[in-house]
Amino acid sequence: xxxxxxxxxxxxLTKIEAAVKETLPNCALSCFDTPxxxxxxxxxxxxxxxxxxxxxxxxxxxxxxxxxxxxxxxTNIIFTTGYSHYALDAYSIHACGYLLKPVTSEAVLEAxxxxxxxxxxxxxxxxxxxxxxxxxxIDEKPLRFTRSKTKELFAYLxxxxxxxxxxxxxxxxxxxxxxxSPALQSHYRNLVSDLTRALKSxxxxxxxxxxxxxxxxxxxxxxxxxxxxxxxAPDAVNSYMGEFMSQYSWAEFTNAYLEKMLQ
Length: 263
Known about the structure:
The protein is an alpha/beta fold. The protein has eleven helices and twelve strands. It folds into two domains: 2-112, 3-Layer(aba) Sandwich (Rossmann fold); 126-261, Winged helix-like DNA-binding domain superfamily/Winged helix DNA-binding domain (Arc Repressor Mutant, subunit A), CATH 1.10.10. The strands form three sheets. It has a five-stranded parallel β-sheet with strand order 2-1-3-4-5, with helices on both faces. A four-stranded mixed β-sheet has the order 8-7-6-12. The protein has a three-stranded antiparallel β-sheet with strand order 9-11-10. Helix 1 crosses helix 5 (105-112), helix 2 (35-44) runs parallel beside helix 3 (61-71) and helix 6 (148-159) packs across helix 8.
């Protein structure tokens, strides 16, 4: 679960941080003392829950909430303030909660029971980003691959959207039609083992399927902006800016297809 807290007062922000960590020790929590920092973070990571101070200089919490919702419509908004008279304004933009300062762990726990968009907090939640450069996030933290080719292997399987891919096909693509050889096949087997270990270390091994001579991903076991785009999800469509897996030349044909879909 990816959570942010935003407050321009240091003391109030530390109180919210402590309350959230006590209540949700396994969440990914990021704290910001400016709305701009929160917006930049939200553009990079899908924010599940946002604790927002209402009274802030420049952009207030109500305005920030609308910006966050524009970026990711399923962000749950919980306002924090020292004044009760903002309650009607808060609920007018479908906030999930309205907490008076100082925020306590008990108040956070109660607010989490009333989220409009329930989210999972378990370890192993996978999010794949294909627009721009290809990246994989486990519980909103980047998954590290020990080899760049391991990451490329997973990227190609993601692009194939659950279709079974033969070992020969994969080797031909990620080594750019190199001449097959026992050494190349050995290197490929090492990549498959490396990918399996990387996913298993993050409790996310169910993202990969194997059968003799073939590999595929299990799309139902993770989220992916490409798959959401193909399903016409507004958030995914709006996030596509004309770039798809930019670091891989073999992805250019898919990028052209995505651009055509928008025409």
